[in-house]
Amino acid sequence: MTSSTVTSSQSPRPPRPNLAFRRLRGQRSPAEFAAAVRRAAREIGERVSCDARYIGRVEAGEIRCPNYAYERVFLHMFPGRTLTDLGFAPRSAVRGRAARASGDNAPLSRTTRPAYAEPYEPYAPSEPLDDPHDPFVNPHHPYEDHEESDVLRRAFMTRGGATVAAASLGPLGLAFDALAADRPVRRAGASDAGALEEAVRHIRLLDDRHGADGLYRRAAAPLRAAYALLDAGAARQAVTDRLHSGAGELAISVGWLAHDSGRFDDARSHYAEALATARMTGDAALEAHAFCNTAFLARDAGRPREAVRAAQAAQRAARGLGSDRLMSLLALREAGGWAGLADRTGCARALARAQALYERGPSPADPEWMSFYGRAELEGLEAQCWSTLGDWTRAARHARRAAQLQDPHFARNTALYTAELADDLARGGHPDEAAAAGMRVLDLLGQVQSSRVRTMLAGTARVLLPHRRASGVSAFLERHASTPRTI
Predict the structure, then answer these.
(1) pLDDT of residue 92
(2) What are the boundaries of the region Disordered (predicted)?
């Protein structure tokens, strides 16, 4: 017989929703609010691994009192308020013992571990960037309990009899009616699952064509609505499964929009949402997708070792799915991590594996979301690996192939590959060719809204500054300098 999981700091009573904290979140999604918490923590020198799941547990009343690190962050975010004002219980009541002699409100040392740490969130006065409790760094993180109610509580829903907000993406084609506060949420049907799946397709299509910056905030409303539908439930298990899969894929899509527009903390939280949903339902395909994007994010965020681990976890999840193309893409994600670690041998092996798997051809088992993955993307990702390793000539060769192979209808990827080419040429000692490629990217910026592309182009411009007398470089630099930085 296993021992009870209820600790002395957890109450056996049913949790009471923390409505005060829910009101403070306002119109922000749990993921957006979690990102705000992490930003506030950095402002005061704290490190907390807050994600939407944690916010959900607080709002559900499961965390009656935060640990000391979170206490400092919350009081910094809401000056003038006490923990009680934020809806939390007194620490002495939660701990089941008297407060320390110095009092709960005494200042806390950053180097002293509190005696009664909050059970759901480890106290980490100097938490590393690769947080071992992050849900996509450690597959066995302490949050994972596979309970549907818990996953849905932490997802995008309101508490008690509150209103489920109207969610509409206008031209993206996903809208759910607002529900009155005094009316129960109707159960979801097959039409809702279909609308959710179509929204995912539409978001991906618009991102391919135009980039992420103009879409990210507009895509948050359907994500909230999707998780509200999950909370409402469905009469048939088949519909429930489609809703879970659709909500997870939508979370990944919104996470990618955050990722591509430079909002890495938001992206990390959205990918964790998708991973939690995948694990709760045993959806290997969704888990592989979540880990795939996590690996890409980790590489871009300067955490190459995490990128390797996440890519390898994705490959384990995808092994039984029967898609060689998916395994090829995941090998490329692993290669990107090895490149970031300056491991040329590990990178080359992963690239060779990716090429071999790609050559096996497409399969009916290939996931729908992989429609972007063709020869152009493979060449583009390989170019990024060689660029990271400093092999500019090889990187430029692959980037050129990628730009040539890309369907010009998808302006965002065309701009991305051409920006990669411009940067590789500039760093490889070909300023005139780099300037010409940079001009082609500038021509596309009217159609493309991607912070990633603009950041790459800005880096190229800096590299080209000492070569402004070379043919075409001065014209490129002048035009780049006059291009609006905001969208």
Answers:
(1) 61
(2) 1-20, 99-147
